[in-house]
């Protein structure tokens, strides 16, 4: 039972990171109508910058604090140079151009930091574990990731629902032309939203550093799962992103932890050893197929799209 | 006039490709037979994608899945000592078409960006499935013991013979593809691309036509996968990697969408470019990436659009 709880927390932690990625992607799609495959690259850039800054300053926290605005800056530069011209293009052009950006970023990172995975070391205060319940110790860092992620989600919620910028974002999502006609500088709004998405991806990336390997191509591994999140939740909907991220995070983590032991009680252990990992890695995609079959527009479809 | 121009380009291309093995033999550069065979195999894959992407308007980001299924069909038969090519290749086509049917039924119900993400996600699922097949090498893949055997009819171990088999198949697919898109079937999927409600209003059921096109393209790409397994004599889950889907898609755009011949040109140019660049620097993708962006932004009609303006 405690094991289930622990894995459930891991699922929550993974779900939180998926949400940070999905929120940026879904905002950018909802407002600029842009399919940005390079969103995963910003995650990777965040992770690398945090690692580099942490080595340079000798402090993990300082590294993370520097990496966040740096990733935002990278995002804004990418938007101004390459993506701005893509908003009016069709999805095919957007997919291909951002695919080109992925190749560029992965190779750039490989040139600067090499192809081998690099690891971040955590400060002692974060690398231990603490007693969550009697008999259950949980890693401090993973708990911190959950807290930061939830805080970011709350910040995003407040930003979108009760600030002027959030009002413009919502207005932009429902009718771009009208917002521009009312005198809002829509290009600046786009750049801002893109920067916000980049910062969220960077935040997910820099937090991922100490848990997963930091290597070229790390962004795409999570990106495709983020797509599954968005498909399940419904494109353009923050609420959908929350629900989708939690479902995918939980199903993926619990599936990897418990599918094989569960299977071995039904079929022979040898067969379970073979089928378990295969099925676990396919689980979220099968779930996506099932959701689509019954609700082609996702769980929380946005209206008019 | 315009049609004859296209026919000239086509015939010239076929003659040039047919001349590759003797010329490479004269220059004593057998490597080029290998390279051009690889280009033509990817040309078949790109051609099949053009049917659904260009004519059908279905932006599938998962075409590499069928490449992988076709390759694994050959590889798994060979693993158990069955090297009859007729059997291997038919199963490669049938299995890919079946996978396309399942993926198509679910994904064609959606459209736009959903369709892109779903096809990508399904391909990633198959990629992970490939990785978890420990019996067949897991993520390292496995060597193909023998190339497909055709009861003494042709010997694929002979590089030139294999080359001409691929060339013949490519020409066959070009011809069939042309017939298909000009036929009533092709007209229906093209009408569904430009205006689906209108296509429905005049009494067609676009879903079935689009699904049929999706399955045909999957089967054709499965054959390309079977050829690719014979070409590399090694198969890995990387055949299904999502970057491979992106590459095939780029071949279509680079050569010129909705032309059938364009994707062939795109495959030749892209793989040629990769060959040249990777000889120059290990980090050739840093050049290829921005090149891709530039092509998408400024040369949307593709290379074939420059050669023949009747698209």
Strand order of the largest sheet of chain B: 1-2
Figure out the total of helices of chain B: 13
Secondary-structure element order of chain A, N to C: HHHHHEEHHHHHHH
Helical percentage of chain B: over 70%
According to DSSP, the number of beta strands of chain B is 2
Explained architecture:
The complex is a heterodimer of chains A (305) and B (311). Chain A is mainly alpha-helical. Chain A has helices at 2-32, 39-57, 60-83, 91-113, 124-127, 140-162, 164-174, 176-181, 186-208, 218-233, 238-266, 269-294; strands at 129-133, 136-139. Chain A has one domain (13-294): ABC transporter involved in vitamin B12 uptake, BtuC, CATH 1.10.3470. In chain A, a hairpin with a 2-residue loop joins β1 and β2. In chain A, α2 packs across α9 and α6 packs across α7 (164-174). The longest helix of chain A has 31 residues, at 2-32. The radius of gyration of chain A is 20 Å and the shape is globular. The termini of chain A are far apart. Chain B has a single domain, classed as ABC transporter involved in vitamin B12 uptake, BtuC (Orthogonal Bundle). Helices cover 75% and strands 1% of the residues of chain B. In chain B, strands 1-2 form a two-stranded antiparallel ribbon. The two termini of chain B are 13 Å apart. Classes of the chains: A mainly alpha (305), B mainly alpha (311). The interface between A and B is large, with 44 and 42 residues.
Could you list some keywords that capture this structure?
heterodimer, A: 305 residues, mainly alpha, ABC transporter involved in vitamin B12 uptake, BtuC, two-stranded antiparallel sheet, B: 311 residues
């Amino acid at each position: 039972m405690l094991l289930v709880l622990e894995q459930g927390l891991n699922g929550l932690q993974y779900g939180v990171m998926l949400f940070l990625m999905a929120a940026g992607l879904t905002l950018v799609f909802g407002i600029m109508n842009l399919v940005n495959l390079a969103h995963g690259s910003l995650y990777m850039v965040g992770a690398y910058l945090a690692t580099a800054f942490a080595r340079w300053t000798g402090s993990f926290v300082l590294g993370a604090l520097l990496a966040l605005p740096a990733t935002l800056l990278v995002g804004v530069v990418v938007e101004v140079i390459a993506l701005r011209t893509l908003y009016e293009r069709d999805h095919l052009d957007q997919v291909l151009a951002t695919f080109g950006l992925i190749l560029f970023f992965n190779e750039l990172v490989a040139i600067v930091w090499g192809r081998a995975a690099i690891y971040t070391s955590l400060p002692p205060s974060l690398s231990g574990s603490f007693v969550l319940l009697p008999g259950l110790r949980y890693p401090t860092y993973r708990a911190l990731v959950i807290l930061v992620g939830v805080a970011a989600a709350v910040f995003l919620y407040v930003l979108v629902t009760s600030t002027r910028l959030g009002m413009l974002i919502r207005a932009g999502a429902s009718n771009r032309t009208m917002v521009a006609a009312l005198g809002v500088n829509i290009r600046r709004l786009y750049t801002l939203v893109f920067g916000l998405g980049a910062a969220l991806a960077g935040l997910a990336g820099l937090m991922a550093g100490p848990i997963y390997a930091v290597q070229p191509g790390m962004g795409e591994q999570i990106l495709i799962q983020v797509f599954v999140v968005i498909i399940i939740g419904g494109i353009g909907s923050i609420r959908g992103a929350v629900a989708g991220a939690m479902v995918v995070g939980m199903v993926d983590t619990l599936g990897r932890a418990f599918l094989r032991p569960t299977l071995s009680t039904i079929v022979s252990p040898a067969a379970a050893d073979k089928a378990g990992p295969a099925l676990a890695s396919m689980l979220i995609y099968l779930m996506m197929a099932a959701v689509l079959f019954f609700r082609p527009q996702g769980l929380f479809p946005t209206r008019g799209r | 006039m315009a049609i004859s121009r296209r026919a000239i380009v086509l015939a010239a291309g076929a003659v040039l490709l047919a001349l590759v093995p003797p010329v490479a033999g004269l220059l004593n550069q057998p490597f080029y037979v290998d390279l051009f065979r690889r280009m033509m195999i990817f040309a078949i894959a790109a051609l099949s994608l053009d049917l659904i992407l260009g004519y059908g308007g279905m932006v599938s980001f998962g075409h590499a899945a069928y490449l992988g299924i076709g390759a694994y069909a050959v590889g798994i038969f060979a693993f158990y000592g069955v090297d009859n090519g007729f059997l291997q290749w038919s199963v490669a086509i049938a299995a890919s078409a079946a996978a396309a049917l399942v993926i198509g039924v679910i994904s064609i119900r959606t459209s736009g960006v959903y369709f892109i993400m779903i096809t990508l996600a399904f391909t990633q699922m198959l990629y992970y499935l490939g990785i978890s097949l420990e019996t067949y090498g897991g993520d390292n893949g496995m060597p193909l013991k023998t190339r497909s055997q055709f009861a003494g009819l042709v010997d694929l171990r002979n590089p030139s013979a294999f080359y001409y088999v691929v060339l013949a198949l490519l020409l066959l697919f070009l011809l069939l593809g042309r017939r298909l898109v000009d036929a009533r079937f092709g007209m229906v999927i093209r009408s569904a691309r430009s205006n689906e409600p209108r296509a429905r209003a005049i009494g067609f059921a676009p879903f079935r036509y689009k699904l049929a096109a999706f399955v045909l393209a999957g089967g054709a790409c499965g054959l390309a996968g079977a050829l690719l397994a014979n070409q590399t004599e090694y198969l890995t889950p990387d055949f299904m990697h999502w970057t491979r889907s992106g590459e095939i898609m780029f071949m279509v755009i680079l050569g010129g969408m909705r032309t059938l011949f364009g994707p062939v040109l795109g495959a030749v140019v892209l793989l040629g470019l990769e060959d040249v660049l990777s000889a120059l620097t290990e980090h050739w993708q840093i050049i290829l990436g921005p090149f891709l962006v530039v092509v998408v932004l400024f040369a949307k009609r593709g290379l074939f659009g420059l050669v023949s303006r009747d698209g």
